[in-house]
Specification:
Length: about 120
Amino acid sequence: MLSIALLVRKARVHAGLSQREVAARANMPQSSVGRIEAGLVSPSFATLARILDAAGFELVADIRPKPVTDAAVEAYKQDIDRTLLRENLKKTPEERVLSLQAVVRLADEARRAGRTLRGGE
């Protein structure tokens, strides 16, 4: 993430302005701009917006939810062969249902065969 100090300096340099020129446009002392660029002070949001506006930039703030990650799931994902997943995603929903029904029939047959081997339990 870009620090406030670097952000202010980048904006000022990109605009081709000196600290004194930005300060004059923002109606503040040059020493304040210097301290902000040096990382000695953290400006308020309003002051930061004023400085960036003086350099010809608009400050835009946005919030986004952090993605929720589960370490166990992330570790598991590394070992997944995505070939079968890609093949299934190529199928229509109807084809996926038919495939699932075939798996269910296979599981039923395996259960019946297991009961038969165990003597009809």
